[in-house]
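Encode chain A's predicted structure.
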Amino acid sequence: MLEGKEIRLDLSININNAYYYHIYRKSDNTHIGNCGLRLDNNETNYILGNIEYEIFNDYRGNNYAYQACLLLGDFAASKGVTKLVITSRPSNIPSIKTIEKLGVKYLEVKKVPKDNILYKQGDRFVNIYEWSIGGKENDRHKIN
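Encoded structure for chain A:
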């Protein structure tokens, strides 16, 4: 379990260096979304991103995705990771705002390969960002 002030992440699956969590609002123990962290750096994860998140419609607009990213970033840093890739559809403005709030570096727009799961879901392009985690530059993001 990873815990912040408003949310906690309960581990649902840990497989092949990937961690998938259910996100719960602590005030009432409501399941408000899901997130994941893939620690392997490879071409597939460059397109998918090392971090993924989904906040259910009724709970959006409360910075829960941002808080989940911070918790996942702290966990990754505890494993020795210093940089994570986060991606978003170019049209997903709320996700882009969440990503930018983390203080990421924009890298590029990349065409999604046909063999990638995102392509099968209808995505053709993704924005790719790099997030430097751990160390003093990330201290301003601490939420615990």
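The chain is about 25% helix and 40% strand.
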